[in-house]
Amino acid sequence: MDRPADLPPAGARFSAIPSVDRLLRDARVERAIARHGRALVLAELRRLLDDERAALEDGARAAAAPEALVDAVLARIDAVVRPSMRRVFNLTGTVLHTNLGRALLPRAAVAAAARALARPSNLEYDLARGERGERDAHVERLICRITGAEAAVLANNNAGAVLLALGTVAAGREVAVSRGELVEIGGSFRIPEIVEAAGCRLREVGTTNRTHLADYERAVGAQTGAILRVHASNYAIVGFVATPGEAELARLARARGVPLVSDLGSGSLVDLTRWGLPAEPTPMQSLAAGADAVTFSGDKLLGGPQAGIVVGRRELVARMRRNPLKRALRLDKGRLAALEEVLRLYLDPDRLAERLPTLRLLVRPRAEIAATAERLRAAVQAWCGALAVVDVADCASQVGSGSLPVDRLPSAALRIAPAGASAAQIASRLRALPIPVVGRVHDDAVWLDCRCLASAADEASFAAQLRAGGLAEAR
Ligand SMILES: *Cc1c(COP(=O)(O)O)cnc(C)c1O
Q1: Tens digits of per-residue pLDDT, 217-233?
Q2: Site to substitute for ligand 1 among 102, 185, 234, 300, most atoms within 8 A of C-beta
Q3: What is the b/e burial string over 444-464, where b = at least 16 CB atoms within 10 angstroms of the residue's CB?
Q4: What total number of domains does the chain contain?
Q5: Does residue 208 lie in a domain region?
Q6: pTM for this prediction
Q7: Mean pLDDT, rounded, of the chain
Q8: Which domain does 163 fall in, by range?
């Protein structure tokens, strides 16, 4: 084997590797054992020394000094124990960002979840009767009170809610869906695939841009298990378009004796126009129009934890509850406790915009966002040094998660225009900060929309971590 001439033969090189025992006596390794335990440290040391032996066998380099080996093992241990899921600053301008965790819970809901996770509770226990209870009961009462629905059942998320609803009412039969509503929501939620996964057959109705009531009338027959209406939450078809109203569709469904299932996706529990936001369909409207079951998410506009909610006719909901799928899709106690707390806020809509973080962020006035950006501009400019020019610019936030797809909310951003480094490099350095900052690259600049930097504490930690370093050193 070729090897540099100045390297000693393999046997001698191996003897230069310190023993495991010797490394275990190193003060820094001892401290690592005290923190992380002997098993992990020993496993990583052995693995490192195996790699070292293999490297020396190749003759690629000389043996590493013991100090370097200790550095290396500490780095490996750190890589194992460092949390993978970390806090970030969401400065993308998308409030309900699916990749960044969607809705942020109010403090009271977080506390309720923590209590439920740490202590026993009456999760499925009827305290009055001393017997087994129903886990959804804790929130069903509130959901029905807020939406006026007869009954409600919960699933792990809205995809699960749609699966449960269709798998219960239409398994083995056809589900009629307009071709204009065969949407993909992102990730792997595609209506044709969900219909199939629920054990139903897709019956396409009408065309992409225009579907008429007569198309549904022709499609619905003895094979039909349900008519599904899907809110086109993440796109809009404009121009020469037509689709029957929900009430018309409900009348047809009733006349033919098939249920109408309406998937709202986000589904707001309040009229958002009250706060000057664009209107988003509510489950109350769908129920009033005559939908038999309505599905929506817990962590989109509702502002709660990940969950899927089905509201609708008592008899249908009871069948969904008995479906074995329900057990597979059930919600855990922490999220149930958080959801109950969030739903309670809806009993006092006048104070909802102060108490529900999602709504608070959505209604945040542009002037206030611009003021945040102005306060932080100098700190960001100092971090960039001569490698970029930072100013405060108008921008437009989005609600996100498919809600209100075409509407934009006026906002303000720190715009970082590169002057040396590239926009992609700057964005990457921002993501490498201790609390990663996630912005948006657009028009060859990095945009940090300050809408979601909404508390004095967040502003302070954002600025503090910039003061600890700089773009130039980070390179
Ligand atoms: C978001 C969405 C879903 C999926 O909801 P999850 O809670 O993410 O599972 C389904 N349908 C529509 C129309 C949606 O917008």
Answers
A1: 999 999 999 999 999 76
A2: 185
A3: ebbbbbbbbbbeeeebeebbe
A4: 3
A5: yes
A6: 0.92
A7: 94
A8: 107-355
